[in-house]
Design a protein that fits this description.
Blueprint (H helix, E strand, L loop, with lengths): L1 E2 L11 H13 L9 H20 L8 E4 L2 H12 L5 E5 L4 H13 L3 E5 L10 H6 L4 E7 L11 H10 L3 E5 L11 H4 L3 E5 L11 E5 L37 H17 L1 H19 L5 E3 L18 E6 L4 H12 L1 E2 L1 E3 L4 H7 L6 E5 L6 H16 L1
Parallel strand pairs: 1-11, 3-4, 3-5, 5-6, 6-7
Antiparallel strand pairs: 2-8, 7-8, 9-10, 10-13, 12-13
InterPro entries: Aminotrans_V_dom, Aminotrans_V_PyrdxlP_BS, Cys_dSase-rel_unknwn_funct, PyrdxlP-dep_Trfase, PyrdxlP-dep_Trfase_major, PyrdxlP-dep_Trfase_small
Pfam family, one: Aminotran_5
GO molecular function: transaminase activity
Length: about 375
């Protein structure tokens, strides 16, 4: 199978990730729940992974790295734990439903106000709209770093400066950028970052987290066992325990840490360069097909791969072929895996005018090859000719 649905999850994992999970299954006990070797070794691994994640994202305090089951859970914890009745937030039309649905629920249950920043004809955010939507009760700006539909990258430094200038929390979903685009929370002014482990970080499913880089007290999302302060009727106030009730995903965290080790060894710049070279190869190979449409700023793809500023996603449609049909043809006839449809990002499709047809999304990984891309180009041409 040629796998180009890495924006959903990376299908091929580094061998050290698999080995780390196997080691955890064999030797680790329950972190923080005992003083014997298996529990202590597990606890050390968990803390070391917190340190790796904190350093990886440029944050200041490993104790404010909170493990979750995915980015969706992390975003729910942050959004439901931070906003109160009457608050106002600014987000964007590029957001995934993991942000949109919590916001809609907060709008309904807590009467929070929401304004969404639109996109221009090239798919880029309308940055001049951020200042225009700030009100007296605005509490935060919530941004998707890389659109999971178009691959367009948000300018975090610009938005971060706007947030700081207006004393707002800056919350960022990095599900599509973590692992292939360098992120520095201190440099960009991110207060809270939510990530998933199973995509660009090469970790297993069921992993993700929150990284807090300022003095924010997020209300508890769930309460229960913590391994400490057991006679306290309430969840401990201290991070990370405050937001980590229950047993952690020890095997998943071990795999996630190994995924970050792999990225650090290869180099995030090298990973991005290779993925952009594959994306550019596919773009060049199909751009002259009659009726093909792209939904991103294609001028980026005329640059050298190391200079391309884009996520590892190429969104296309072809006149006369529904995106779902194209995905089906590629899967059934050529064993090529892509994603078609709405991608859980309804506002983005409304903005792009693709509600009915959806979009065929090709997303790349460091483990994809030029030979695979050439086979995809050949397949698309044959489908269009037929």
């Amino acid at each position: 199978m040629i796998y180009l649905d890495n924006a959903a999850t990376t299908f091929k994992k580094p061998i050290n990730v698999i080995e780390a999970i196997n080691h955890a299954l064999t030797y680790y006990g329950n972190s923080g729940r005992g003083a014997y070797r298996a529990a202590l070794d597990s606890g050390r691994m968990v803390y070391e992974t917190r340190e790796k994640i904190s350093k990886f994202f440029g944050s200041s305090d490993p104790s404010k790295v909170i493990f979750t089951s995915n980015a969706t859970e992390g975003l729910n914890i942050v959004l439901f734990g931070l906003f109160c009745s009457g608050d106002h937030v600014i987000s964007t039309v590029t957001e995934h439903n993991s942000v949109l649905r919590p916001l809609y629920k907060l709008e309904k249950t807590k009467n929070i106000g929401i304004d969404f920043i639109g996109i221009d004809e090239s798919g880029k955010l309308k940055y001049d709209e951020f200042e225009k939507h700030i009100k007296e009760n605005t509490k935060a700006i919530i941004v998707n770093h890389v659109s999971n539909v178009s691959g367009e990258i948000a300018d975090l430094e610009y938005i971060g400066k706007t947030a700081r200038k207006n004393n707002l929390y800056f919350i960022v979903d990095v599900s599509q950028s973590a692992g292939n685009i360098k992120i520095d929370m201190n440099k960009t002014g991110i207060d809270v970052l939510c990530f998933t482990g199973h995509k660009g970080l090469f970790g297993p499913g069921g992993t993700g987290g929150i990284v807090i880089n300022s003095d924010i007290l997020i209300d508890t999302f769930k309460v229960g066992g913590s391994g400490v302060q057991s006679f306290n009727k309430e969840q401990p106030d201290e991070y990370p325990t405050r937001l980590e009730a229950g047993t952690l995903n020890i095997m998943g965290i071990a795999g996630l840490g190994a995924g970050i080790d792999f990225i650090n060894e290869i180099g995030i710049t090298n990973i991005h360069k290779k993925e952009m070279s594959l994306l550019k190869r596919l773009y060049k190979g199909v751009k002259d097909i009659k009726g093909i449409k792209f939904y991103t700023d294609c001028s980026e793809f005329e640059k050298e791969p190391e200079s391309i500023r884009h996520g590892s996603i190429l969104p296309i449609n072809i006149d006369g072929i529904h995106s779902g049909d194209l995905a089906d043809y590629l899967g059934e006839e050529y064993d090529i895996a892509i994603r078609a449809g709405a991608h859980c990002a309804p506002l983005m499709h409304k903005a792009l005018g693709t509600v009915d047809e959806g979009i065929a999304r090709f997303s790349f990984s460091y483990f994809n090859t030029e030979e695979e891309i050439d086979a995809v180009i050949k397949a698309i041409k044959e489908i269009v000719e037929e």
